[in-house]
Design brief:
about 80 residues
């Protein structure tokens, strides 16, 4: 290896218009429905590991629809900070 490299020219992703009936819009709507149907467990990074904090759990809701739960998380505690 002589240290000379060929860096490929940068390319942008294709611009999609998400028009009604388009495949990209159908795929996006299906993914949004899937995410809304199954709230995620939102972990914290504590001590370099992804895990739930030890404090009280709380729901994370959509800002525009407070009845829609996007996931659950927990408050960090002093014990978590010591990790």
């Amino acid at each position: 290896m002589d240290g000379i490299t060929q860096v490929p020219a940068p390319r942008n992703e294709p611009v999609l218009d998400y028009a009604p009936g388009s495949p990209e819009r159908t795929e996006l709507q299906a993914e949004l429905l899937r995410l809304a149907a199954a709230p995620e467990e939102l972990t914290a990074t504590i001590g370099g590991r992804q895990r739930m904090a030890g404090g009280a759990a709380f729901d994370v809701v959509a800002p525009h629809a407070h009845a829609q739960v996007l996931g659950t998380s927990a408050h960090a505690t002093a014990a978590d900070a010591a990790d």
